[in-house]
Design a protein that fits this description.
Blueprint lengths: L1 H30 L3 H18 L3 E2 L2 H17 L10 E2 L4 H7 L20 E2 L3 H26 L25 H23 L3 H5 L9 H16 L10 H17 L9 E4 L5 E2 L1 H17 L6
Antiparallel strand pairs: 1-4, 2-3, 4-5
């Protein structure tokens, strides 16, 4: 009982701090230069925090299986979208750079938050990204194993195309037969990935590549998180209006904080989109740090 009370008190403290930061962001966005850029990055920060606070199994293989079951339902509903539908991802390239920078501050490169680099999804693009992403990291498991066992440095494979690029085929109509074919290929790729990952022991999962690359445990949590983010791009779209987008991202983060997910259950973890594990306190701290930096760089409109 005492533990639940302590958690509830922490959540109240976090919500108060987030509310204060939210108010400062909105003031800066309405009265300062680069207001829309501030809102875009702050929106990305809050929606990433909400994604991260979605509890995941501590076992990355179970995380992959659970997420594919959820993601497949979203992918099936892509057939309901008009052919010309297009939705903007809440992510920005600037936030990507922030979330994937090295842990040592001395190695951080400056990030320009006064502009926004983002991308969109069409109904076909999530299918392409889920499939390519699974195949890419399935190949990575074998490369990492050879690297660890025999010292064979991996050869980068770059035949896939990232979400930031929209191919001509991404704009083609999506028919029921097309979708069935995509889902069959995706199911097979995820089945192979899950089977291969299930053979890995703790030493395999936690081996640190000598170049500072990601251990496979992080990679697998990243694949699981990413599948849901691609698959739900239409079902969980944000409003178009910049302020409404930020307010909706804030509401989703508040809902996560209010859920039972942060009750200290040792069987769950909170991976970010790029596989790093966070505590709820760290998630909130990162939102506050990002928004403090955004507000500090905003100058009043002369």
């Amino acid at each position: 009982m005492a533990t639940r009370t302590a958690i509830s008190e922490r959540v109240v403290t976090w919500k108060d701090a987030l509310q204060l930061s939210r108010d400062q962001v909105l003031v800066a966005a309405r009265s300062g230069q680069h207001g829309e850029a501030v809102l875009a990055h702050a929106t990305a920060g809050r929606i990433v925090a909400a994604w991260t606070l979605d509890p995941a199994p501590i076992d990355p293989v179970a995380h992959l299986a659970q997420t594919h079951e959820r993601g497949r339902r979203h992918l099936r509903r892509l057939l309901d979208q008009p052919t010309d539908a297009e939705v903007r991802s809440p992510m920005t390239s600037q936030l990507y750079d922030r979330l994937t920078r090295p842990p040592e501050p001395a190695r951080w490169k400056p990030i320009d938050y006064t502009s926004v680099e983002s991308y969109t999804y069409t109904p076909r693009k999530p299918l392409r990204r889920v499939l390519d992403h699974a195949l890419d990291h399935l190949n990575q498991i074998d490369q990492w194993q050879l690297w660890r066992r025999d010292g064979v440095v991996p050869t980068p494979t770059d035949g896939w195309v990232p979400s930031t690029v929209t191919l001509p085929e991404d704009r083609l109509p999506l028919t029921a037969r097309d979708l069935d074919g995509w889902l069959w290929r995706i199911d097979q790729a995820l089945r192979l990935l899950i089977q291969r990952a299930a053979t890995l022991g703790p030493d395999d999962l936690d081996w640190q590549p000598p170049d500072g690359g990601w251990p496979l445990r992080r990679v697998l949590h990243h694949v699981a998180r990413s599948e849901l983010l691609y698959a739900a791009s239409f079902d969980e779209r944000l409003p178009d209006d910049p302020i409404a987008r930020y307010e909706e991202a804030d509401a989703r983060l508040s809902q996560r904080l209010a859920s039972h997910a942060i009750n200290g259950d040792p069987s769950v973890v909170f991976p970010g989109p790029y596989g790093t594990l966070f505590t709820p306190a760290e998630v909130v701290a990162e939102v506050l740090a990002l928004e403090k930096e955004l507000v500090s760089r905003t100058r009043p409109v002369p």
